[in-house]
Specification:
7 helices, 224 residues, two-stranded parallel sheet, single chain, alpha+beta
Length: 224
């Protein structure tokens, strides 16, 4: 499934979001402001997916979903910039990151799974960020997924970004936790693989290779 969706016209919001508003609501420090100035050309609050715009009932944790477009000044965007914006807006957000102009323009999607904190409902908890590959901005967009409520829609929209499929009856929180655990496991595999490559002693190679096989098996189990 493509993660570039054709959102309903009635959900269009189309308002430029001043960086100063982000700073104000997130408490951005000097370093964070410098990242915005260096990497972000413009932020547009492009769509507002809400009960009143798309006629789907709100759910606890997903009252609305916002679609933000960010025009980049270069190919780089520090994850903390997205975290800063997410921290300033009290709704789940999907970001469309745009770079270049005209025929050279490219787009990619980015989002973290965002939910209210169980300890404090006024605070939001973010997973790691998931991104798609860069696509030509002119890529044909997919119709927005069908859903019965905002939570189902949020889950369907995130599916295009997350590299591991959800299991049947798996909750959103459990799915994301498994994906993040798999990412940690993948780093262990890569680290062990590098260690095996450097090792000169035959006996140690056998031991490391056994560990590597076990790590790969565990990663495969997490990934399906």
């Amino acid at each position: 499934m493509s993660a570039l969706f054709a959102y309903p016209k009635q959900a269009a919001f189309g308002r430029v979001l001043p960086k100063s508003k982000i700073y104000e609501h997130s408490g951005a420090n000097t370093r964070m402001k410098a990242l915005f100035i260096e990497q972000v050309e413009q932020i547009v609050w492009q769509y507002k997916l809400a009960p009143e715009t798309i006629n789907l009932p709100a759910c606890p944790g997903v009252p609305e979903i916002q679609i933000f477009t960010i025009q980049l000044k270069s190919t780089e965007l520090h994850e903390n910039v997205l975290r800063c914006i997410d921290g300033a807006v009290q709704f789940p957000i999907l970001f469309e990151l745009n770079q270049g102009q005209g025929e050279q323009a490219k787009t990619r999607m980015a989002a973290a799974y965002k939910r209210p904190s169980e300890a404090d409902a006024s605070r939001w908890v973010l997973s790691s960020y998931f991104t798609t590959d860069w696509k030509p901005a002119a890529t044909t967009r997919t119709a927005m997924p069908l859903a019965l409520d905002m939570l189902q829609l949020y889950t369907a929209l995130l599916q295009g970004l997350i590299p591991i499929p959800a299991r049947p009856q798996e909750s959103m929180a459990d799915w994301i936790a498994r994906v993040e655990l798999a990412a940690t496991q993948r780093r262990k595999v890569e680290k062990t693989q590098a260690k095996l490559t450097r090792e000169k002693q035959f006996k140690r190679k056998i031991e490391i290779n056994a560990t590597l096989r076990q790590l790969k098996t565990e990663l495969e189990q997490l990934s399906r």
